[in-house]
Amino acid sequence: MRIGTAVLLAGAAVASVGVARLHQEAKHQRERVDIALTRNQLDWLEKVFTDPGVAAKWAPADMKAEEYMGLMSANYLLCTLSLRDRLGLVSKHQLRLYASMIMGKETARRYWEMFGDLRAQEAEGDPEAERLYDALARAADEAGRAERENQPAAA
Q1: Per-residue DSSP letters for 106-118?
Q2: Counting C-beta atoms within 10 Å of the first and last residue's C-beta, which end of the chain has fewer, N or C?
Q3: In angstroms, rounded to a whole number, what is the distance separating the alpha carbons of residues 135 and 142?
Q4: Is 27 left (phi over 0), alpha (psi -120 to 50) or beta?
Q5: How far apart, in whole angstroms, are the C-alpha atoms of residue 117 and residue 121?
Q6: Eight-state DSSP code of residue 23
Q7: pLDDT band for position 154 (50/70/90)?
Q8: For 76, how many CA atoms within 13 A lie in the half-sphere containing its CB?
Q9: What are the backbone dihedrals phi and psi of residue 132, each rounded to the nearest 5 degrees, phi first?
Q10: Phi and psi of 35, rounded to 5°?
Q11: Using an 8 Å Cβ cutoff, are 11 and 4 in contact?
Q12: pLDDT band at 153 (very low <50, low <70, confident <90, very high)
């Protein structure tokens, strides 16, 4: 191999390592921003579901603050799961399991009935968010179906 060719190949290798490093750094920066934004959202949600005065200001007009507080506590869990999923800390199996555990609670299903369509709109066009939405919607449907099947028949 000629020296000129060897120098070009070495330069190309160094450049590809540099590009890979820049790509990795950009990914980490996006993750840091995502974490910071989610932390802000979780802090706000915590205020809403722990302070009746704040909840009363943000609750829909036809809803009592206490009910809204419960719904926002469910939203808090969903946002936490969403962050863990976006960071790659949840396997497909775990996502289904956690979604099922959350939607096993009536409060979470009430949240989903009221705000699930908004969640669908937020997820549109984002494959990761759509995967989370699909898992949550499926879990909500399954939990709702199981609850209906376990109710005693009306006389």
Answers
A1: HHHHHHHHHHHHH
A2: C
A3: 11
A4: alpha
A5: 6
A6: H
A7: low
A8: 17
A9: -65, -45
A10: -65, -45
A11: no
A12: low
At position 87, the amino acid (one-letter code) is: L
Concatenated DSSP letters of 135-149 = HHHHHHHHHHHHHHH
Q: Which long-range contacts (CB under 8 A, 24 or more apart) does 144-153 make?
A: 144/109, 147/106, 147/109
Angle at 55 between CA 49 and CA 57, to 5 degrees: 160
Among residues 83, 77, 147, 65, the alpha carbon closest in space to that of 112 is found at 77
The DSSP 8-state label assigned to residue 153 in this structure reads P
Query: DSSP code of 88?
Result: T
Could you give the count of Cα atoms lying within 13 Å of 116 in the half-sphere of its Cβ?
18
| 118: amino acid identity, one letter | L
pLDDT category at 1 given cuts 50, 70, 90 is low
Q: Which two tokens stand for residue 90?
A: 């949840």
Distance CA 100, CA 92 (A): 12
> What does pTM read for this prediction?
0.80
Half-sphere CA count of 30, side-chain side, radius 13 A: 8
